[in-house]
Structures are given as structure tokens and as C-alpha cells.
Predict the 3D structure of the following.
Amino acid sequence: MGMMGASLAASLRKDPGLRIAGVVRSQKSKEFIESHELATEVYCASGLSDLPVALDEFDLMVLGMPVNANGVLLEELGARSAENLPLITDMSSTRTYLEKVAAQFPDLPFIGSHPMCGSEDTGPSAVKEELFRNRLVILIRSSIRSPEKQENFDNLSQFWKHLGSHVFELNERDHDLVLAYLSHAPHLLSSLLATVTARRPEVRNINRQSPIPITGGGLRDMLRIAGSNPEMWRDILQTNRNYIAESLRDLRQGLDELIQTVESDDLDWWAGWQNQSRKDRNEICGYNDDT
Amino acid sequence: MGMMGASLAASLRKDPGLRIAGVVRSQKSKEFIESHELATEVYCASGLSDLPVALDEFDLMVLGMPVNANGVLLEELGARSAENLPLITDMSSTRTYLEKVAAQFPDLPFIGSHPMCGSEDTGPSAVKEELFRNRLVILIRSSIRSPEKQENFDNLSQFWKHLGSHVFELNERDHDLVLAYLSHAPHLLSSLLATVTARRPEVRNINRQSPIPITGGGLRDMLRIAGSNPEMWRDILQTNRNYIAESLRDLRQGLDELIQTVESDDLDWWAGWQNQSRKDRNEICGYNDDT
């Protein structure tokens, strides 16, 4: 249980009689979850084999590690008899890798979930009870293995909706493509902006001399996600490298065009470009068109 | 009086007995300022010659138009006898252009100010009384014309500090360089990110089909300033084109390196790069080092 697992437990514990077993990697996390009564039981374990409970005592198992570690868990689960397993889901940010792992085990009762509510805060102490409310959860309808029973899709969808989430289905390829553009590349761009800005010596020195940093709200917003959670993002990068590279190359092409126009003497393009980008922003984010 | 001018008046009107004359371009703005009692008097005028008051009745004149229009006003003021002028300042986002204008008029009592509290909201109805509190105001110590009297610097500095601002002095070149990196390029990058993201058809179509947009808080933050105020930004672009192009080229070089490493099989660079960008972010924004 990290930030998302603890928040999931916190959202569920309102339901009386529900048995929630949490698994953590450190004694400190175990103590936090116990003292905040986030689960009915909590185990400190490094893997499935350490767990002192039988998985089939539960209806649902939610994997909450970074995506590569979730893949390792899925392999371990796939090696077990499917009869002794509950429905399994996860909360990872990339999907093709996990679908490939799952495809090796035709009986594995796994449906991938991506609740879009990650943040730069990590660990169970960053728990937020309403984390899933009004957020999007993408369920994966695999394009590379036979689909799970519709009943399981319905149940899992109901589970997330019960927490206030909106549910949307995509295949793993579309998911990874869209998320590269709408989440992964913007995260890298935020980190890049921090690095490039700090690399220019005059900027750094003058900013240091100022009584308060020379940063408006715009830059602060753009740098909020810079450098977040290296472990999780290493996995995202590794498992969605092609689409991330593709979206960065698109950005690079856009940047080339922008530099060319900025350097030209013509400024007629500007108002149109700026208005279009505002329309684009409003469409992407679902805001009313205010242009 | 736009958003910043109205906010300036709103911050000042607490001082009893102060005469605040506002100048606006539209009847609608005039009515807003009158009905909200933001000034002791307000004039709708298209230029200095329309004004029914003598400027030397005032201690300070604050130009609050986009930078090119402020330059035109400065030229008009420069053509007048300096004896009939109060101390003049402004609130523009770029400085070299205005210093060049002012350099043509050795007697013009002008010291440039850049209060760093612009926003994507425009017009007097976006008034914020505490807009200047805890914000940075950069005063320009010109490197291309003889400096104003120190007394005037002290008075202007006192004026901004009275509103709760922190004051920092830079020459116009350093200002424009640093602001290109810390404000102008990030604004363009936000617009670019919106445009590039929306240009990819699958991303656009899938995002449209989703019950709520597939955008985490990260992307929303990065797109907040996309497409803001085309008129103001056209002027910024025009008057700081070289440094903006320079910072965009630095970003392009950083993006090239990033694409190369993302496409390589090696992931060892990642944690170091991500941690460095977090340190850089924290230094730029003045946050505690939390890495």
C-alpha cells in the first residue's frame, strides 16, 4: 500500500463488514496503516509467498506497486491455479507490458485498471480518502488475449463507480498512446524545463540574488510535477518508451516550427496560434470554449 | 486600467486622502471602476492629449498598457517638458524596448517597473486587491541611459514596498534574459504542448469519447497558461524575441538529448536526471530541497 493503495482502503472502509487486507513493504508503513485504521488487517511482506492469508478468501486483489513490480506479481499469480485466485486488477500507469505478461497465462483472472489520480506525493502517509471521486478509471479490454468474462468487467466497473470514479474502456495500445501524450510526455517536459532553465548560469545567479524567486505562477505550475517519483517514472519510461519517444518527437517538431516563426520578422501568425492553442487546451481539458 | 491597474488602485485606496486618477479605453471599464469606487476619478481616453487633467498634479504616473502601447505613451511624454511631468513608471513585461525609447529623451523622469503578478485574467473586472502583496517588483537600473536620481529610485521602491511587494533591481538586458527563461518561454511551451497534443488525431478522438477528459492534474497545470492574452503576448514576443528564441533553442537542445536517452536501451541516466530536475525545480522556485 502506497499513496494510492492507502487511499483506496480509506475510501472503502466506510462500508461496514468489508474485509480489507493491506500489504506493505516496510514496518513504518504497517504502523501508519494500523494506527490510522486504514485496513482490517495489514501484512509486511516482500512477496506473495510471505503472505499468511489465502488469496481466495477475497473477492478482489488490487496490485499497487510500480508497473514492473506488478508484472512480477502477475507472473507469480499466473503460476498458481486460477481456482485459488480472486479477480485481480492493478493501478499501473502503462498497460501493454502487463497485458503481455497476462497473455502467458490464459486462465489468469486479470483485468487492468488505471485510476488517473496519481500525484507527486508518495507513501501511505499521503493518503486521501476522496482520491478516486470524480476521477477517471480506464479499464483495459485487452487486444492481445481472450477477454475476461463480462461479469468480471461489470463487477470491477461497479467497484470503481462505487468510489465515485468514471469508468472508460480502452485497449492497452490506445491507452499507452494516449497516456504518452496526455501524461507521460508532459511529465518529462516539466522536468526538462526545470533542468534547461537552471542550466543557464545568468538565470540561476540572478534568480539566487533576488529577495524572492523570479518565478510567476505560470512557471510554478509548469514545474509542479518536475522530478516526481523517480522509481515509478522509470517503470513508465521503460514500459512505454516508444509512444513517449513519439510524443517527444512531435513536441520537437512543434518546437522547431515555433522557433522558426519566433525568429521570423512576421508576427501575423501569433494571434491565430495563441487562440488556437487556447481552443486546443479547452478541448483537451474539457473546459468551455472561452476564446 | 486593466487587471493590474485596477488592482493597483484597489490596493492604494485604503490610504485616505490619496488622489487616484484612472484612465481606461472603454466606457464599460469606466463604469466598472466608478461603481466599484476603485479610483477618485476616472477618464475614458484614447491618448494623453484627451486627458482633461494636468499630469503635474500627480506624484506618480503608472503606465499599464501592453509594452508597445506604453512605448508610444513614453514617446508622447518624452516630447513634453520634463518640468510638467511626475515620476513615470510602468508595469510592462519586457524592458529593453522601453529603455531604448526613454534613452531618446534624457530628461524624461522614467524608471521602469515590472511587478511580477500578471495572470491570464484581463480587464478591470479581474481586480484583486492583494495582487501585489508578496510579489516581486523588478525596478530597472538602465544600462543604456543616465540613471534617474537616487531619490526617485527610493521613492518608487517605497511605493511598491508599501503595497507589500519585494523590490529587486536589474538592468534591462538581464531582466529580459532572465524573464525569457523564467516566464516567456514557459508560456510559449504551455501553448505548444496544447497544440501538439491536440494535433494527434487518436489522442483527440479517444479523449473526446471518454466520459471525462483523460487529463491528470499534471497536464492541467501545465496547460493553465496556454493561449493567454494574445495582445499582451504579441508585444512580449516582439520586444524580447532574441532571448525568447535563445531559451527555446536551449529547450530544443535539451529535448534532443532527452529523446536520445529515452530511445537508448540504457535507463541508468533516469534516476539521476529526474532527481537533478527536482533539485533544479526546488532551487528555481525557492522550495526546500526535498530530494
Notes: Chain B has two domains: 3-171, 175-264. Residues 3-171 of chain B form a domain with the Rossmann fold fold (CATH 3.40.50.720). The mean pLDDT of chain B is 94.
